[in-house]
Design a protein that fits this description.
Endonuclease I-creI; 151 residues; 5 helices; 25% strand; single chain; 4-stranded antiparallel sheet
Length: 151
């Protein structure tokens, strides 16, 4: 059970079970990475696990941060018409991804086929990073191929 403070300042008790977290991620989560390659500069791979929810549901994101013991919650500015204010829970720290996020989703994998494929691809990409081969030409090609097949 996790206690969080709502935007209005009242305390809420939010119970997050593994099944609830998996369902939430199936619907609103993302496993992704950004790959920057610049000639003459070091290649950069930035992994991200995140969920985005409307501002009124921010307490759920705060509970996720407590549940996983990592990550940040922040306003995601979106100026497109017909979009409401949203918050985002994000984990980009490689150690947190390796020690907390990946083990959780290996134990409790996403249920939807597309999210499961993205998670498996994300794990494959992270293995390249953990091996340190993302700096090589071969590693970059492998990451580009993985990225092309992700949702």
């Amino acid at each position: 059970m996790t206690t969080v403070t709502s935007l209005e300042g009242s305390s809420l008790v939010i119970t997050l079970s593994p099944d609830y977290v998996v369902g939430l991620v199936d619907g609103e989560g993302s496993f992704t990475f950004r790959l920057n390659t610049h000639p003459g500069r070091r290649n950069v791979m930035e992994p991200r696990f995140y969920l985005k929810l409307r501002a009124e549901d921010r307490a759920i994101l705060d509970a996720l941060r407590t549940f996983f013991g990592c990550g940040t919650v922040y306003i995601q500015n979106d100026r497109r018409p017909n979009h409401s204010l949203c918050y985002r829970f994000e984990v980009g720290n490689r150690r947190d991804l390796r020690e907390k996020i990946l083990p959780f989703f290996r134990k409790y994998p996403p249920k939807s086929p597309s999210k499961r494929r993205d998670f498996e691809a994300f794990c494959e990409a992270m293995n390249i990073v953990f091996a340190g081969t993302h700096f090589t030409e071969e590693g970059v090609r492998a990451l580009q191929s993985i990225k092309m097949h992700m949702h």
